[in-house]
Amino acid sequence: MEVTALKLGIVKTGIRNWRLAQLIGISEQELSNYATGRRRCPADLRHKIAKVLDVSVDELFPAGFDEEAERLRKHGDVW
Question: Which end of the chain offers a freer environment for a tag, N or C, measured as fewer CB atoms within 10 Å?
Fold first, then answer.
C-alpha cells in the first residue's frame, strides 16, 4: 500500500478517518481510496480536507502526485 502525503497528513493531525470523512461529507471508504492513492481526489474535496486538517492543499497533494499515480496505473504497478 502506498503512503501518500494525504495519508501522512491525516496521521499527523490525529483525526480519525471516519470523523474526517463525516466532516467533509463523504464515506470513509471514499476517503480511504483518496488516502491510499487508489482514486484521484477532486479539487473541491482537496480544499475541504486541507481546511479541516488546517494545512495547505499543496502539503496534502504535492505537485506531480496525479501524474505519478497515473503513470503507475498505466504500467500496472498499482491495483
Answer: C
In 10 A of CB 66, how many CB atoms? 13
Could you tell me if 41 and 49 are in contact, meaning their C-beta atoms sit under 8 angstroms apart?
yes
Query: In the predicted model, what is the mean pLDDT of residues 33-45?
Result: 92
Distance CA 68, CA 45 (A): 20
Residues 6 or more apart whose CB falls under 8 angstroms from that of 66 comprise 40
CATH classification at residue 32: 1.10.260.40
Q: Whole-prediction pTM value?
A: 0.76
Q: How many domains does the chain have?
A: 1
